[in-house]
């Protein structure tokens, strides 16, 4: 049986091997993390609590003995010795005995080894007898013994590009019977496999156009299960034996000419394009990278627009999984973006939030054909903004393909009145006048403008229609108090 938490419906869905739903287990709050115990029961987080329940929903153990013991449990693990490990939102792993009593904790916030910045998944490796933790914002995997002592760590930041052994937004993780660690990157739907020592083995792109960002995975023999909250589906993939790719050296050379710096490099096996970058930082820190372009051949001329003797660094990255037929120049020189990386409050997707231009504009898209209108924008939005994703989701209209995210929201800028909701200024239905959102509970304005973010679209509601024919209703109230 496959057990899937459904936080919007406050239940656990039980699915058999043919994909049929055979049972639902109702809960008194939204479940998130889940694991099965050795005695056939279920370990599940519900809101800020972690419980052990039977398959009919009867509570057996409340860990920590109180409902709100945890900040926000990201993942739960039942270990072979009966201990329970909880990866909490305060960047601490909390350990309990089988009766629910706290035993000890390990970890804290930070980037030093043994610390965490969003430990989102936790598993037990039977082969190495280690606790394996996905340390998401530090772009790495860390392993510990059962007492919480650090054993290994591997991984680095990949900036959303396909580079083996690196992570952009690692989320799902599982360990198979051979002790191999499987990870899923939520932003590029990339599965990577590592051996027990953390050495990269092979990777695969899911290549499922409508998955919109899987967030959790499970390995069962030769089957891989991937949950996608934004599509309310579980996808099942067959696993075939992977082979570790052999990477030829780039042997990048730079020849200074009157036209600029001419870069040349060796072809890479399987590459269909190359991303060229320049950086003022030797380590290519995210904020220091300038995207120069994408090319299909093995040469590129950097038309240096400043002193050519200025200290800088260049690199080339092979793209092997970009499936769009034409590679375009990705240089952002049209003035539209107004340096979003330097203006935090002008962009919701700012580097300080762990997101930058590369997160969306260099995603390895797989275009469905014909491509639905919602796909290009909403596919990206709902890769992150889902109930269990790393970005907050607002459930209003979520999942309704006729009401796309981009109708109301701008991915780049906000109105000056209220800086963190990123509401568009223009009328989303294409008529005259603008749409205005002045504070967190400002939804309807009424006559004569009818330019609130609810009434500007609504034509079939009983109240506050865009044509002014709907009656007023609880004026001044916060709409989402009742209309969640």
What structural class is derived from the secondary structure elements? mainly beta
Low-confidence stretches: 321-345
Report the C-alpha radius of gyration, rounded.
Answer: 25 Å
What name is given to the CATH topology of the domain at 2-238? Neuraminidase
Query: Tell me, what's the shape?
Result: globular
Sheet with most strands: 4 strands, antiparallel
Number of strands: 28
CATH architecture descriptor name of the domain at 2-238: 6 Propeller
Rounded to the nearest angstrom, the distance between the terminal CA atoms is: 33 Å
Number of helices: 3
Strand line-up in the sheet with most strands: 4-5-6-7
The averaged pLDDT comes out at: 79
Work out the strand percent.
Answer: 25-35%
Throw out a few tags for this protein.
Neuraminidase, four-stranded antiparallel β-sheet, Immunoglobulin-like, about 475 residues, mainly beta
If you had to describe this structure to a student in words, what would you say it looks like?
The chain has 484 residues and is mainly beta. Among the domains are: 237 residues, Neuraminidase; 79 residues, Sandwich (Immunoglobulin-like), CATH 2.60.40.10. The protein is globular and about 70 Å long. It starts with a strand and ends in a 76-residue tail after the last helix.
């Amino acid at each position: 049986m496959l057990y899937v938490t459904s936080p919007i419906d406050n239940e656990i869905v039980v699915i058999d091997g043919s994909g049929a739903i055979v049972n639902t287990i109702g809960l008194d709050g939204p479940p998130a993390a889940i694991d099965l115990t050795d005695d056939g029961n279920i370990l599940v987080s519900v809101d800020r609590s972690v419980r052990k329940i039977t398959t009919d929903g009867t509570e057996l153990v409340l860990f920590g003995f109180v409902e709100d013991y945890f900040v926000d449990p990201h993942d739960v693990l039942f270990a072979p010795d009966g201990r329970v490990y909880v990866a909490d939102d305060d960047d601490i792993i909390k350990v309990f005995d089988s009766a629910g009593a706290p035993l000890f904790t390990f970890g804290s916030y930070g980037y030093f080894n043994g610390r965490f910045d969003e430990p989102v998944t936790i598993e037990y490796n039977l082969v190495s007898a280690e606790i394996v933790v996905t340390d998401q914002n530090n772009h790495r995997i860390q392993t510990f013994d059962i007492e919480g002592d650090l054993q290994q760590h591997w991984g680095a930041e990949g900036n959303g590009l396909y580079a083996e052994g690196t992570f952009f937004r690692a989320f799902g993780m599982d360990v198979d019977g051979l002790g191999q660690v499987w990870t899923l990157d939520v932003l590029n739907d990339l599965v990577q496999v590592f051996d027990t020592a953390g050495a990269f083995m092979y990777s695969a792109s899911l290549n499922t156009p409508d998955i919109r960002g899987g967030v959790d995975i499970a390995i069962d023999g030769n089957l891989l299960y991937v949950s996608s909250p934004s599509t309310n589906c579980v996808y099942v993939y067959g696993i075939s034996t992977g082979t570790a790719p052999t990477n030829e050296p780039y042997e990048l050379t730079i020849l200074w000419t009157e036209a600029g710096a001419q870069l040349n490099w060796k072809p890479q096996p399987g590459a269909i394009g190359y991303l060229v970058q320049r950086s003022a930082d030797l380590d290519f820190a995210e904020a220091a990278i300038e995207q120069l372009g994408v090319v299909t051949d093995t040469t590129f001329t950097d038309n240096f627009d400043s002193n050519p003797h200025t200290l800088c660094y260049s690199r080339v990255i092979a793209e092997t999984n970009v499936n769009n037929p034409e590679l375009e120049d990705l240089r952002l020189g049209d003035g539209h973006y107004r340096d979003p990386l330097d203006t935090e409050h002008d962009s919701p997707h700012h580097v300080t939030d762990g997101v930058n231009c590369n997160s969306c504009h260099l995603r390895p898209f797989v275009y469905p054909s014909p491509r639905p209108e919602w796909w290009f924008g909403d596919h990206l939005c709902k890769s992150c903004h889902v109930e269990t994703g790393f970005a907050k989701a607002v459930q209003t209209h979520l999942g309704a393909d006729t009401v796309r995210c981009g109708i109301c929201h701008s991915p780049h800028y906000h109105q000056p009145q209220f800086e963190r909701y990123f509401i568009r200024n223009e009328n989303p239905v294409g008529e005259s006048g603008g749409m205005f959102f002045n504070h967190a509970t400002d939804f309807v304005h009424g006559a004569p403008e009818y330019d609130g973010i609810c009434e500007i679209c609504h034509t079939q509601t009983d109240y506050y229609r865009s044509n002014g024919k709907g009656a007023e209703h609880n004026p001044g109230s916060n709409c989402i108090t009742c209309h969640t």
